[in-house]
């Protein structure tokens, strides 16, 4: 049990360690998948609430959005606990995050202003930034098609094409409806959650991904 003060949010399953990683206030908690118990030692961040985070599969780092701590990205080594902080050059409210591990690129979406900020995971330096739809709360990297899908609550899915690891183009803002901010990408489909509005119940919409 993590306790109410942990204010849990995002979670990730790590197949290699058979652990569930959970974003909490002040860092990342770990749960043993076999025993379903809280691993004693949490990964300590810089403070504030951990929002979206990504785990390296070929390395030992965890990348964590911490908007409460002056909009930084925490980089925590799972083996040593070492912490590094990367800034976002004035962009604020960094909630969603996706990772292109093969090309060493981290995709951070900010809300103030609404941007895709691309970071080099080797250096932490900004590669580029691309305007996207506002009030985003989820982002996915489609490695097969080299695309980023950012779900904006203002009523658009922003589709950004990765031309190469250093160059990105906003290719479309696909209309959804106001309030659609979360979803899940799987294979050739992007499923989004549509909140209830008026007499309309909550729904799940399926967007087929073009090749």
UniProtKB/TrEMBL annotation:
* Record organism: Candidatus Acidiferrum panamense
Looking up InterPro entries in the UniProt record yields: Haem_d1_sf, WD40/YVTN_repeat-like_dom_sf
**What name does UniProt use for this protein?**
YncE family protein
The record, for SUPFAM superfamilies, names: C-terminal (heme d1) domain of cytochrome cd1-nitrite reductase
């Amino acid at each position: 049990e993590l306790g109410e003060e942990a204010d849990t949010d995002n979670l990730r399953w790590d197949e290699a360690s058979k652990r569930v990683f959970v974003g909490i206030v002040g860092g990342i908690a770990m749960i043993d998948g076999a025993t379903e118990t809280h691993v004693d030692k949490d990964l300590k961040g810089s403070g504030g609430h951990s929002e979206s985070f990504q785990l390296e599969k070929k390395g030992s780092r965890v990348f964590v959005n911490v908007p409460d701590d002056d909009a930084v990205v925490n980089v925590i080594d799972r083996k040593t606990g070492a912490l590094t902080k990367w800034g976002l050059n004035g962009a604020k409210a960094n909630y969603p995050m996706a990772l292109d591990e093969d090309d060493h690129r981290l995709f951070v979406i900010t809300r103030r202003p609404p941007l895709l900020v691309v970071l080099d995971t080797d250096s932490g330096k900004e590669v580029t930034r691309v305007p996207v739809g506002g009030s985003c709360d989820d982002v996915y990297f489609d490695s097969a098609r080299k695309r980023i899908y950012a779900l904006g609550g203002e009523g658009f899915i922003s589709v950004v094409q990765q031309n190469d690891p250093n160059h990105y183009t906003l290719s479309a803002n696909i209309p959804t409806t106001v309030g659609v901010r979360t979803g899940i990408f799987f294979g050739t489909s992007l499923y989004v959650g549509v909140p209830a509005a008026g007499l309309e119940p909550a729904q799940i919409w399926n967007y087929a991904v073009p090749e």
